[in-house]
Design a protein that fits this description.
Arc Repressor Mutant, subunit A, mainly alpha, about 50% helix, globular, two-stranded antiparallel sheet, 2 domains
Length: about 170
């Protein structure tokens, strides 16, 4: 299952490791975990929830019958990139746009290619704000792809990193 929450990409992947360390080793309720992430990352509880789900998508946390817990498995940047492509809604589509483009692509151009995949219920839920929110999400996806080393910024836009398969199944 691919999950939608994706926090804005930070300056470095160190922030992701901070979020990972904030998820408890002993399972805790979703509210407890989100509160813990919010406190440790100095973000709102809703943003803490986004970080928790994002960590779960990347295989850094999991939900158990007793709540959420941190996974201790070592994850390389390549492992994170693979999980990102496979488990975060929109990542595959954004990366496919880059892979199928000749040269650098702006975030706006990537959004234009991505826009048909925005679920209709999202458009109806917030007719006046969905586009702004999803443009931000596409930019966050692109910036995470750069942090994970599967895209780079070049000539004012984004390009796929050569030699990496972007066709996640």
């Amino acid at each position: 299952m691919r999950r939608k929450p994706v926090p804005p990409a930070p300056e470095s992947v160190d922030r992701l490791w901070e979020a990972h360390r904030a998820v408890p080793l002993v399972p805790g309720t979703e509210d407890d975990c989100c509160g813990r992430l919010a406190t440790r990352l100095d973000v709102t509880p809703d943003e803490g929830r986004d970080w928790l789900v994002f960590c779960q998508s990347l295989g850094l946390a999991r939900e158990t019958g007793r709540g959420f817990e941190r996974l201790r498995d070592e994850r390389s940047l390549d492992d994170l990139a693979t999980a990102f492509e496979a488990n975060v809604f929109g990542a595959r589509e954004v990366l496919d746009t880059l892979a199928n483009s000749d040269g650098s692509v702006t975030a706006d151009a990537v959004f234009e290619a991505f826009e048909p995949t925005v679920p209709n219920w999202e458009r109806h839920r917030d007719p006046n704000g969905w586009e702004r929110r999803w443009r931000g999400r596409v930019t966050a996806l692109l910036d995470w792809a750069v942090l994970f080393g599967i895209a780079r910024i070049e000539d004012g836009g984004y390009v796929a990193v050569d030699g990496r398969s972007l066709d996640a199944d």
